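Subject: design request, 414 residues
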């Protein structure tokens, strides 16, 4: 069965219209108490409210009913790539996002620095969210302690806060064209109060890589002994080099990414978007507005990402997530001033503060254009989105809808 990309590609046409996709990472949530409000509902968002009145709303499931998406699958879905078909690990996204070149046979791994207590029990999966400076200090120590394992070169890179990237470099491909395999189970149990897990290979090709990962974990803990918080490492998101159809080739769009975090820049880069520099502190919204304004004439599709709506949810900080939503709302008029022909506001998944993690709950979708039908939704919230005319959809439906609203799709069939 062909996917939607095969249908859209021959229908796409060039026009002067511009599409702005705003991704509020993990924006959807849950009420803390029965019959309470979600973070979106609790936030004071006069600009989003006014926009919702003149837009179409609905809900999306990025992957499918009951499936909790990672950031990679969630974003691929938003960009129109079926995440069940186009699979990429977090490691490759992070590596590409920070400018690391991956070669055939290499395996990239996404890591979290963690705090381990007595008996190697995980006390904090994010090691108190260390500063980027502390991250770089720890990475330098690991580089010195673990330059290679059994002759396999090992490279360690800073990503952001508690995140880092490890690349195991293949020493060459075998006769079948295979290098290191990436079919490996997580070290990160994604809960506290337990020990890190052993990496287990899912096939024979990946068995050497699992051994490399387990050895790295042991040697890293030895190198970080004495650190009060950053004294352990957790791994998930193993990946080799992915190859995706080009976003420009599918949709005929000149596309740009405005994001701070390396993983999201990496994902946009893998599908062929240009990565625009962002000034200011990490995830500074003002810098992202400047980048958008300065480059508005050069592109016809912009992916504009906000991270802190997700990380505050992961921290279980309901009030701070509300605050981050309100900060975005305050800057929304700057985006509207550019007069995008089609504006989309959506999340890549839900991150309820109540759960302190991603969740399976549908995410509100808003689309505003001159060609949308009026509906009953009056706010950009989970509850109001249920009243919207767009209904409940798969995430992969979004790009065709945006293209149609931008008048960038030809008629299908006679």
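Subject: RE: design request

Done. Sequence follows.
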């Amino acid at each position: 069965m062909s996917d939607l990309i095969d249908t859209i590609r021959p229908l796409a046409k060039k026009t002067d219209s511009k599409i702005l996709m705003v991704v509020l990472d993990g924006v959807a949530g849950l009420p803390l108490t029965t019959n309470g409000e979600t973070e979106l509902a609790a936030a004071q968002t006069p600009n989003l409210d006014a926009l919702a009145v003149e837009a179409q709303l609905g809900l999306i499931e990025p992957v499918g009913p009951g499936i909790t998406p990672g950031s990679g699958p969630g974003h691929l879905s938003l960009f129109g790539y079926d995440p069940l078909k186009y699979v990429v690990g977090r490691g490759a996204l992070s590596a590409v996002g920070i400018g690391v070149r991956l070669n055939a046979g290499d395996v990239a791994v996404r890591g979290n620095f963690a705090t381990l207590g007595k008996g190697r029990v995980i006390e904090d999966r994010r090691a108190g969210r260390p500063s980027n400076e502390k991250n770089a200090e720890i990475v330098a120590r690991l580089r010195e302690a673990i330059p290679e394992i059994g002759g396999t070169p090992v490279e360690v890179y800073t990503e952001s806060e508690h995140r880092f990237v490890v690349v195991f470099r293949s020493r060459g491909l075998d006769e079948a064209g295979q290098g290191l395999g990436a079919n490996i189970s997580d070290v990160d149990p994604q809960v506290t109060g337990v020990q890190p897990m052993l990496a287990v290979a899912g096939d024979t090709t990946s068995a050497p890589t699992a051994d490399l990962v387990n050895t790295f974990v042991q040697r890293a803990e030895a190198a970080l002994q004495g650190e009060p918080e950053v004294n352990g490492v957790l791994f998930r998101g193993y990946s080799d080099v992915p190859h995706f159809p080009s976003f420009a080739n599918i949709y005929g769009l000149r596309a740009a990414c405005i994001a701070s975090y390396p993983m999201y820049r990496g994902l946009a880069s893998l599908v062929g978007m240009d990565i625009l520099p962002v000034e200011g502190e990490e995830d500074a919204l003002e810098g992202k507005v400047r980048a958008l304004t300065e480059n508005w004439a050069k592109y016809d599709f912009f992916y504009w990402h906000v991270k802190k709506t997700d990380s505050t949810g992961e921290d279980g900080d309901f009030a701070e997530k509300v605050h981050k939503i309100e900060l975005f709302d305050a800057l929304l008029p700057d985006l509207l001033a550019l007069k995008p022909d089609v504006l989309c506001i959506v999340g890549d998944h839900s991150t309820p503060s109540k759960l302190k993690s991603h969740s399976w709950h549908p995410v509100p979708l808003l689309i505003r254009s001159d060609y949308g039908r009026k509906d009953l939704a009056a706010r950009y919230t989970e509850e109001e989105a249920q009243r919207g005319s767009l209904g409940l959809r798969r995430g992969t439906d979004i790009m065709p809808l945006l293209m149609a609203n931008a008048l960038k799709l030809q008629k299908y069939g006679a």
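The radius of gyration is 22 Å.
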